[in-house]
Amino acid sequence: MTMAILEIQSLTKRFGGLTAVNDVSFSVEKGAIVSVIGPNGAGKSTLFKLISSFVSPTSGRVDFNGHTITGMPAHEVARRGVVRTFQETTIFKEMTAMQNVIVAHQLRCRASSVGIFFSSATARADEERFQASAAEILDYLGLGPVGQMIARNLPHGNLRALGIAVALAAEPRVLLLDEPFAGMNIEETDAAVKMVRGIRDRGVTVILVEHDMSAVMRISDKVVVLNFGTKIAEGTPSEIQQNESVIEAYLGRADEEIGH
Amino acid sequence: MGIETKQEASSEVKGSGGISSGHDRLPAGSKLRFFALAATLLVVVPVVLGRSPYYITVLTNAAVLAFISLGVWVTFSIGRMNLAQGAFAMVGGYITAILSTRYGLSFWLCMPLSGLVSAALGAFVGWPVLRLKGVYFAMITLSLTEAIRLLTLNGGDVTKGATGIVNIPRPGAIGIFGLTIVPEFSGADPLPFYFLACGLLLLGIVAVWRLSTSRLGWVFRSLRQNEDLATSIGINVGKYRVIAFAICCFMGGIGGAFFAAYHQNIYPASYTIADSVNFMLYCFLGGLDFILGPVVGAFLLVIAFEILHAVQDYQALIYGILMIACMLWLPNGILSLAVRRSSRESPARK
Amino acid sequence: MEQMLVNGVVLAVNYALIALGITLIFSIMNILNFAHGQMFMIGGFVVYYLYGIYHLNYFLSLVAVVAVLGVIGYLFETCFFRRMRKVATREENSMLLAVGTALLLENLALSIFGEKQRGVPPVVTGVYRFGSAFLPANRLLVMLLALVLIIGLLLFVQYTRMGRAMRALAQDREVTHLMGVNVNRVAAFGFAIGAALAGLAGGLLITVFGVNSGVGNFYSIKAFIMIMIGGAGVVPGAILGAIVLGFAEAIGYELLPGSVTYLLIFIGLIIFLLLRPQGLLGKPWG
User: How far apart are CA B279 and CA B323, in angstroms?
Assistant: First the structure.
């Protein structure tokens, strides 16, 4: 049995009177693709922020590779390998796509700060490595042709891919994808599904938050369902599709479909 | 210098690699231009204007003000409007004043110490204060300038309150093995101070440029453009903000040290809110996208007002009008005018 | 002890006038009026000339203050800030524009009025006693007038059409525009009122403290401190900030020598911001 790379234990988050996440627990196995779904306002985004330490929980904890990461500053959690993407297109607007990705490599820089300042040999070797790696990531996400374009001029569809490219460049062990399929048509979704699978094949565990049921059911090893901040179901896609409480949770929402 | 199109920046990127040339417009061709500037300042000016102490003084002032403004530019590079530089120039000036008058320390030791103390204070205050952004940061830094003034006013015997510290000794000679490398700065000859000022400025430009194109510079850039994204890829945003601010305060402190020895006095009134505002104005006028922006802005304004001697009484008033005009009609600064119109993208939100 | 309380209340009410003015402008237009202190100062000078030199009725001179500052505020919005909204490539530009307006007013005043400190005779004479505390009748009057103005402002914002338009604009610019409200007009009006409030505060306080063309920054900083403490852009925040600052000053000036008070206020402010950067009632840094 594969080890759980991420253990979420009794995570709860209260904002004043509102409980956004209520005692949610589940584990994520290494190399799995886990999807967190639920109607709007179910607390999925908050859960993501809790896992990546952008928000601290009222109670509960998150263990990554056996170590508790709750309470660590967000950048430290990212350095350890838990990297999140953002729902709104979040990129470095004034840099080129290539520069966006290279900046994310800063973590992996081996040369000391002084060495960089005076352009030591190690610094230059690092730079070459970053360039090659960035080019590879951009190509992988289909952004090769637009590598030299300033990010704010990129077509909207590319912006999300760039966000993922930046996250990948930070060499994550666990990647938290925030609605990667949002607003995509069938072809785009297919390509995105392939991309997410490819990311997993590179050795990255993927957790995604999503509304698009068909994509979720195709791609996930495990699905966790939230409603009003509480976990109401957890299981394989087929188990979830037949789960009574899940169907009930979604019945009231006319604009959701529950898989094909 | 540093004048080129956005397209050139991109092709520069293709050629030399994704990260070694920055958005801050100083690609390879500018090495030539830098040396031209250095030559002008260090050779041409002394030869042509060496006999007129008045012009030398004006340029000395401009050079150090430009140096101090470069510090403010660094804070802007992490996305903050810093209106506290007057405070740190004040701190630097007082440190030099106190160390040289009370303890007889040589200016050449005082100056770096002033920079370091200012930087330390900046780091200490910056840690909480840099969490604020936009107008909030501007407000608190403006208040900081005032707070430091009050500190010097109430510094008791150390800062001598409102009377300030006078008779600050001029820089002494530096010699090795009996050979004088740097002569003693006399009151009669303005050139040694001028060379020191230009030396500081040129060093400052090189340092800031190197910073800007280095890994640290890119970290700063990422902070300015999206702090959340930077955090998500593992950048310790808090730490790097403080580093940038400390660098800024270091430069402010050094500049303050210079002026203390130059004017040979310092008072609580030496640096006011208006001064803090001016440093920001120089950056804006020259162009915030350009490392040479603060330099151009400072030189232009200082020289212009000396030329407009007749209106010197209304100097501050014209400053105000200029600021307003600059914001309305030249929001990207003077150097941005040199960007060829064809490559101009439509007005974008930065 | 009682003197500190009395002083605190008096200062708090007057300062609230200042805080509300800057808050109004900030909430409607998202601009920090760096020139607020200078507007305060000009209000003082209007009263100095009309009431002090020409012996016009004090209340009429206050009306003149509203007229003068209202025009200034209106002009600033229409000539400067409105244009800025069209041209702005970055948020910092509007900020520096505001700083420029402050410089403009300050140095205009310096050129016209000179540097000297000016004062006016108190509007009413006599002193009241509250326990062991003394309160000059003039200060009481000034406080009551400020109170009237504050209440008037709050009623205006709550119940008049223009007031409601301002509140709508403060909440959501887009939606208000779509509802057919002339955003430009409301903004200009808002700026005029904000400026007038600053001027009125100045016109009131000149009878107590006097005025000179250099106090602008001093009072701008007070305004900043108040909204940093209370929370920018929210009316209750402004009032809360005024109360805190008023009492801090009253207590400080009573117990500590001169300028040490403000030094401590600044240190306290920085520590406070460490714990709560958005102020007591504000939204996280706007």
Answer: 12
- C57: three-class secondary structure by DSSP: coil
Residue by residue, DSSP assigns B54-111 as HHHHHHHHHHHHHHHHHHHHHHHTTT-----HHHHHHHHHHHHHHHHHHS---HHHHH
* Strand-strand pairing, A82-84 and A174-178: parallel
Phi, psi of A150 (to 5 degrees): -65, 135
Average pLDDT, chain B: 81
For residues C20 and C239, the answer to whether their CB atoms sit within 8 Å is yes
Give residue B213's pLDDT.
85
**Could you tell me the CATH number of the domain that includes residue B194?**
1.10.3470
What's the sign of the alpha-carbon dihedral C258, C259, C262, C267? negative
3-state secondary structure of A230: strand
| Confidence at residue B344, expressed as pLDDT on a 0 to 100 scale | 40
Note whether C285 contacts B133, CB cutoff 8 Å.
Answer: yes
Note whether residue B87 is domain-resident: yes
Q: What is the pLDDT of residue B330?
A: 81
From C91, C97, C273, residue closest to B324, measured CB to CB: C97
Q: Which residues, 6+ apart, have CB-to-CB distance to C36 below 8 Å? A: C18, C21, C22, C25, C194, C198, C219, C220, C223
Closest CA to C79 of C176, C167, C192: C192
| Spans of all domains in chain C | 2-216
Tell me how long chain C is: 286
Whether B234 sits inside 8 A of A94 (CB atoms) is: no
Whole-complex ipTM: 0.87
- Which residues of B fall within a CB distance of 8 Å from A85? 232
Sort out which chain A residues have CB atoms less than 8 A from B214's CB and list them: 116-117
Q: Do B138 and C103 touch (CB under 8 A)?
A: no
The domain tally of chain B equals 1
What is the set of domains in chain A, with CATH numbers? 1-81+172-260 (3.40.50.300), 95-171 (no CATH)
User: How high is the pLDDT of residue A106?
Assistant: 67
Q: What's the domain range around B41?
A: 6-13+22-172+188-343
DSSP state for residue C81 in the 8-state scheme:
I
pLDDT along chain C (286 residues), means of 10: 87 94 90 94 94 90 94 93 76 83 89 87 85 86 93 91 86 79 88 95 92 90 92 89 94 85 89 82 59
On whether residue B115 sits in a domain, the answer given is yes
User: How do residues B120-154 score in pLDDT, each as one tens digit?
Assistant: 999 999 998 898 888 889 888 988 998 999 889 88
| Cα–Cα dist B271/B143, whole Å | 13
Residue B294 lies in a domain: yes
The DSSP annotation for B248-305 comes to: HHHHHHHHHHHHHHHHSEE-GGGS-HHHHHHHHHHHHHH-TTSTTHHHHHHHHHHHHH
CA torsion through residues B294, B297, B300, B305, sign: negative
Please report, as a single letter, which amino acid is at residue C265.
Answer: I
Q: Which two tokens stand for residue A114?
A: 């002084």
Contacts of B237 in chain A (CB under 8 A): 75
C and A interact (at least 3 Cβ pairs within 8 A): no
Beta bridge partners of B179: B176
Worst-scoring range by mean pLDDT, A54-63, A92-101, B173-182, B313-322?
B173-182
Is residue B183, in this structure, part of any structural domain at all? no
Tell me, what DSSP letter sits at residue A2?
P
